[in-house]
Write a structure and sequence with these properties.
The complex is a heterodimer. Chain A is mainly alpha-helical. Chain A contains 14 helices and no strands. Chain A has 2 domains: about 60 residues, no CATH class; about 230 residues, MetI-like fold (Orthogonal Bundle), CATH 1.10.3720.10. Chain B folds into 3 domains: about 140 residues, Dipeptide-binding Protein, Domain 1 (Dipeptide-binding Protein, domain 1), CATH 3.90.76; about 100 residues, Periplasmic binding protein-like II (D-Maltodextrin-Binding Protein, domain 2), CATH 3.40.190.10; about 220 residues, Dipeptide-binding Protein, domain 3 (Roll), CATH 3.10.105. Classes of the chains: A mainly alpha, B alpha+beta. Chain B: Keywords: Signal, Transport.
């Protein structure tokens, strides 16, 4: 599965990127592109070769593990992308923790008290959550919590005044490894607003999914049996019902996680989060072909891997699902 | 068992959450000394100024590395830098520079004539020291190419003695001195370049007031005070951090909440809000740009001078500035901004007068008007915050004199391509100056030499009279004579009206009121050596 998807991705991104009007040389030179300078630069970048040769060169390098070199910075993409990926991953992870924790519990609560006012309220919250544009939510958060209340910083991953040498580029992990609790605390504070903004939509989706899935399960016979046996309500919900309601929820989780990785551009822009979304966005603007192609390929690979993990999770959740056996 | 596990998970999550909330409030530990945080829209692509053309790179490198001559603090006039005096030979081909003898690079090596020669050799040879993939873009465009090219101006650079450098040119170049003051021609430490040429752009070493410390990509760049800086008593700050915050509103929020001290790229609409806030101050960057409307003179009816002049009378620049620049711009009448020497203030603007415009159209034989395509920029530029809205505004006035326009707005890259190839009939565009020399505006944008596709002269204005003057001015090195040429040139351009010069924009910036001594420079970036924080 993985290989054909990746080959397809590489073809599509390569040709789409090259179909965008304008060239990196032009983006680099801007208004001051004199004809000679432009020509020389395009020649140097190999942009005058036929497209299929450029694609062939790209794939050849890719197979040797070379993701290419950024036109803008002159650094290898494989090195450059790591801090951005880590930043996005960290953000997506926290957003997902928030989304799952609140989404699942909100959904359970609604299903448990179906048609009560609490149910309606939760579903209205979920509806608003789904419909709210991320950038609007982000700006509101900044206005209320950063500017007016000054509880959280409005941008970045860390206070720039703090001197900190990242190793893994996952700041939480780095701070823990180095035992630097000032950094840890500061990183946490910077995480809250963007993670909430990013997590709101998946939270709402998960809440709705959980609710409908739970409603179905709660009506089934074995739950009635359990109740009849006198099993505690909390135990029924979290142990007996939730596990059977989990499959659709996990599916949504997998898809949303992929979306968070690729789709955090708006959040990353508003909160100046140096993540992979912004990295790609800037690269598209500069027609930095190598970065766009390889960056998308890396994100796509992760997306596919996450979905693979989700598939494997099914088997763990529901032992009736087994792979490789008919 | 399972239940207990998930209960632990929930408790664990609550714990994390509470840590987050507990973390609120207290201020995190700051660094020692005075730190200035400068908020800006984007990160620097590279920190080797010779390799880039963008302001965000120069903003940082200008504080790390210095040029032989510099621009004055608030104008584009040239003054001493690493060189204290200079002279030009009779025939204009030899330039001799006396260098400062008390300057050291951040790595401890001495700044001297050898270092200057090394830098120029590196740029003109392009592939010098294994920097094969690199191109010294600005060098090629300001000095007519590279070593071996026909148009290359610099014949040789040599060290006469330890602190004297001599340039021999193939032909006199009027803007030579102005060029040397440009940010890309800052002198790098030869030792640092030689050590690892391909990594120099990640760890720049120069003679400037601040030393490079660290770089978190797309987030922040930290510079530290150079304690051995040759200007005694400077810099006043201990640390400067350039922080990228891409969204203009978010950057203002960061300023208001005290996360940053100075910000570039304020929305003109927010300028009033900043002015009212006592904790903040508003800065206006003196203009070094021009926004214009160009007629494609190769297309009818713009081959007729009277049509072009008519439209010049039909554009309400003051209204435009009020509506779209929040009054942060000046109406333009020449193709170069008034902050440059040689600006001709005697040129009389085509005043906004629709009757005159109609009359001129009638004289040109277009009494009933005509229909044209009007290119408007899809993206905000320094000289024009909203091309499309500005085009609509002009469109309304043109309609009143019978000219129907259809606004087209392709994506920015295609926009540049189309206009450079002359696909447009009328187009909005602009230019930000490089070296503070009138040649950089007049020759680049309006000489017939630059009408070759892809053209910089998107009016395709071909005037031999103008060409002769501009070429004379390029050869001349006496500034007072050059001033005369350029003033004459502006008169010719005004009469022929290949453009409607629209505005000289003064981009607004904002800072905390405790920031002292920050002076925005017309070239777009500035040294922070004299900036101080007084809380």
């Amino acid at each position: 599965m993985l290989i054909p998807v990746l080959i397809g991705m590489s073809v599509i991104t390569f040709f789409i990127v090259h179909a965008i009007p304008g060239s990196p040389a032009k983006a680099l030179l801007g208004e001051r592109a004199s004809p000679e300078a432009l020509h020389q630069l395009e020649e140097k970048m190999g942009l005058n070769d036929p497209l299929y040769i450029q694609y062939f060169n790209y794939i050849k390098n890719l197979l040797q593990g070379d993701l290419g070199t950024s036109i803008q910075t002159g650094q290898p993409v494989s090195e450059e992308i790591i801090p951005y990926l880590a930043a996005t991953f960290e953000l997506a992870l926290f957003a997902m923790v928030i989304a799952v924790f609140f989404g699942v519990n909100l959904g359970i609560f609604s299903a448990w008290r179906q048609n009560s006012s609490v149910d309606y309220l939760s579903m209205v919250i979920a509806l608003i959550g789904v419909s709210m544009p991320v950038f609007w939510l982000g700006l509101m958060e900044q206005w209320i919590f950063a500017q007016e209340l000054a509880w959280f910083p409005s941008s970045g991953r860390l206070d720039s005044r703090l001197f900190f040498e990242p190793v893994t580029h996952f700041y939480f992990l780095d701070a823990l490894i180095q035992g630097d609790f000032v950094v840890l605390q500061d990183a946490l504070k910077h995480m809250v607003l963007p993670a909430v903004a990013l997590g709101t939509i998946p939270m709402a989706i998960i809440a709705r999914m959980t609710r409908s899935s739970m409603l179905e399960v709660l009506r089934s016979d074995y739950i009635r049996t359990a109740r009849a046996k006198g099993v505690g309500e909390l135990l029924i919900i979290y142990k007996h019902a939730l596990k059977n309601a989990l499959i659709p929820i996990v599916t949504v989780f997998g898809l949303q996680m992929g979306l968070l990785l690729g789709g955090a551009i708006l959040t990353e822009t508003i909160f100046s989060w140096p993540g992979v979304g912004r990295y790609l966005y800037d690269a598209i603007h500069a027609r930095d072909y190598a970065v766009v192609q390889s960056g998308i390929l890396v994100v796509a690979t992760i997306f596919v891997l996450i979905n693979l993990i989700v598939d494997l999770l099914y088997a763990w959740i529901d032992p009736r699902i087994q792979y490789g056996k008919e | 068992m399972k239940f207990r596990k998930s209960a632990f998970l929930i408790i664990g999550l609550l714990f994390v959450l509470s840590t987050v909330l507990a973390g609120c409030g207290g201020n995190s530990a700051g660094g020692q000394g005075k730190t200035l945080i400068y908020g800006r829209g984007a990160d620097s692509p590279k920190l080797d100024p010779a390799l880039v053309t963008d302001g965000e790179s120069f903003r940082v490198t200008g504080n790390i590395m210095e040029t032989l001559v510099q621009y004055e603090k608030d104008s584009m006039n040239v003054t001493e830098g690493l060189a204290t005096e200079w002279k030009n030979s009779e025939d204009g081909k030899k330039w001799t520079f006396k260098l400062r003898d008390d300057v050291k690079f951040h790595d401890g090596t001495k700044f001297n004539a050898e270092a200057v020669v090394f830098n120029f050799q590196r740029w003109m040879n392009r592939e010098h020291l294994g920097s094969k993939k690199d191109d010294f873009i600005y060098y090629g465009s300001m000095f007519g190419g590279y070593k071996g090219d026909k148009g290359h101006v610099i014949e040789s650079v040599k060290a006469v003695d330890e602190y004297t450098v001599e340039f021999t040119l193939k032909k006199p170049q009027g803007p030579f001195l102005q060029n040397l003051a440009m940010s890309p021609f800052a002198i790098a430490s030869p030792k640092a370049v030689k050590k690892d040429p391909s990594k120099f752009a990640e760890h720049p070493v120069g003679t400037g007031p601040f030393k490079f410390k660290s770089w978190k990509k797309n987030d922040s760049i930290t510079l530290e005070k150079n304690n051995d800086y040759w200007k005694k008593g400077l810099p006043k700050l201990d640390r400067v951090i350039f922080k990228s915050i891409p969204d203009n509103s978010a950057r203002l929020t960061a300023l208001q909440s005290g996360d940053i001290d100075v910000m570039d790229g304020l929305n003109p609409d927010d300028a009033k809000r900043v002015e009212k806030n006592k904790q903040l101050q508003l800065y206006k960057r003196p203009p070094n740009n021009v926004g214009y409307l160009a007629f494609n003179m190769e297309k009818k009816p713009f081959h007729k001078k009277k049509v072009r002049q008519a439209i010049n009378h039909a554009v309400n620049k003051k209204g435009l500035i009020k509506s779209f620049y929040a009054n942060l711009a000046e109406p333009a009448k020449n193709p170069m901004p008034p902050s440059l020497w040689g600006y001709n203030d005697k040129v009389e603007e085509y005043e906004y007068d629709l009757d005159k415009a109609k009359k001129l159209l009638k004289e040109a034989g277009y009494e009933d008007g005509f229909e044209v395509e009007f290119y408007a920029m899809p993206e905000p530029r320094p000289y024009m915050p909203d091309g499309r809205k500005i085009a609509e505004y002009i469109q309304a006035d043109l309609k009143k004199i019978g000219i129907k326009t259809k606004i087209v707005s392709p994506e920015w890259q295609s926009y540049l391509e189309d206009t450079q190839e002359g696909k447009h009939e009328m187009a909005l565009l602009g230019w930000t100056g490089d070296n503070g020399d009138p040649d950089n505006f007049l020759y680049v944008l309006l000489d017939k030499d630059n009408t070759k596709i892809p053209a910089q002269n998107i009016s395709f204005y071909k005037s031999d009279k103008l060409h002769d003057i501009l070429i004379e001015a390029q050869k001349e090195t006496d500034q007072s004579k050059r001033t005369e040429y350029y003033q004459k040139a502006q008169e010719i351009i005004h009469e022929d009206a290949p453009w409607v010069p629209l505005v000289y924009a003064t981009p607004p910036l904002a800072g905390q009121s405790y920031v002292k001594g920050y002076v925005p420079h017309p070239k777009g970036t500035e040294s922070l050596a004299e900036v101080d924080i007084q809380k």
